[in-house]
Design brief:
This protein is of the alpha+beta class and 202 residues long. It has four helices and four strands. Strands 1-2-4-3 form a four-stranded antiparallel sheet. The radius of gyration is 50 Å and the shape is rod-shaped.
Length: 202
């Protein structure tokens, strides 16, 4: 017996292909959705891990900043203590400066010159007096410049000719001078002498 298929087989094949295509597209869509979800989840995990690292680093930075502030405070305290220690050492070493000043003035002021007043302001000494002549004043300036480590930078402020009364009947013409110079600190004198002594030792 011969069977004749009266159904449109081409339409059926086309329908099967269409259904297969739709199923494939749906499966591809699901697969793409799963892959996109996995990639999104992976990136979210990476972002979360990086945020945790950043938060940890921020907390560590804050700890380090606190330690740096403590170190800066300690350094300030050390600097203040060193400054106090130096001030005490300077006071101890400079307590003999008046003795050195008077001793050097006795040595460096030439004959024919004498002091009428002396005043100290910090390390600056202002001195007034009389000399028999301008040459005596010049000699005194040279002595203060070259012959003593304790006195430096002498500067003649004023020199004028003046008559002074030696007695009721006798007067003498003298040079009244006004000068200033710097009294060196003990640490400066010692520091200035060390290179010289080292050179002599060589």
């Amino acid at each position: 017996m011969i069977l004749i298929n009266l159904l449109p087989h081409r339409e059926a094949a086309r329908k099967r292909r269409k259904e297969t295509f739709q199923a494939t597209m749906f499966a591809s869509f699901l697969l793409g959705l799963v892959i996109a979800g996995a990639i999104y989840w992976w990136f979210q995990m990476m972002i979360t891990a990086q945020q945790e690292k950043n938060a940890f680093l921020q907390s560590e930075i804050k700890v380090l900043e606190g330690q740096i502030k403590e170190i800066a405070t300690i350094e300030d305290e050390i600097a203040a203590l060193k400054a106090r220690q130096k001030a005490v050492e300077d006071l101890q070493s400079d307590r003999n400066l008046p003795v050195h000043l008077l001793n050097e003035l006795v040595r460096q002021i030439p004959e024919g010159a004498y002091i009428s007043s002396i005043r100290q302001s910090g390390q600056t000494i202002a001195m007034q007096g009389f000399a028999q002549s301008n040459e005596r004043v010049s000699e005194m300036l040279r002595n203060l410049t070259d012959n003593t480590p304790w006195l430096s930078k002498p500067e003649l402020v004023e020199i004028v000719a003046r008559n002074i009364n030696l007695s009721q009947k006798e007067q003498r013409r003298v040079s009244a001078f006004n000068l200033r110079f710097r009294l060196m600190r003990t640490s400066e004198v010692k520091g200035g002498n060390e290179p010289a002594s080292a050179t002599q030792g060589k």
